[in-house]
Design goal:
elongated
Length: 116
């Protein structure tokens, strides 16, 4: 797979992840605390793909690397919010695990891309 194909595939993967995070966030309780977390996880979870798309259209190599670093940071933040949701027992871990695992994979991918 060449870089262009990889980029398109990762754009799709991060977009699908954003949709899953949005859907997951709607399952949180309707309390002030949960609404705060819903807002946070929705922002970080959807930002990953948006920033990756921007990275693929970067004006320079430093701009690309900066946007990739943002993707990595947003994936890490999303993973943090998933862990908070788990620890509050708002959703079962079995329900959160696929997104948590996907965050781990995305962090590894963006870390690897950022080192190149």
């Amino acid at each position: 797979m060449d870089n262009k194909q990889f980029g398109k595939k990762l754009e799709k993967r991060t977009r699908e992840f954003a949709v899953r995070i949005i859907r997951l966030s709607t399952e949180l309780p309707n309390t002030p605390e949960a609404r705060t977390i819903r807002n946070q996880i929705t922002k970080s979870g959807t930002s990953i793909g948006a920033n990756y798309r921007e990275a693929n259209r970067a004006r320079s190599k430093p701009d690309f690397k900066n946007k990739i670093a943002i993707c990595e940071s947003e994936a890490s933040e999303t993973q943090y919010w998933l862990e908070v949701i788990k620890e509050t027992d708002w959703l079962a871990w079995e329900h959160l695990r696929p997104e948590h695992d996907e965050c781990s994979e995305l962090i590894a991918i963006f870390t690897s891309i950022g080192r190149k």
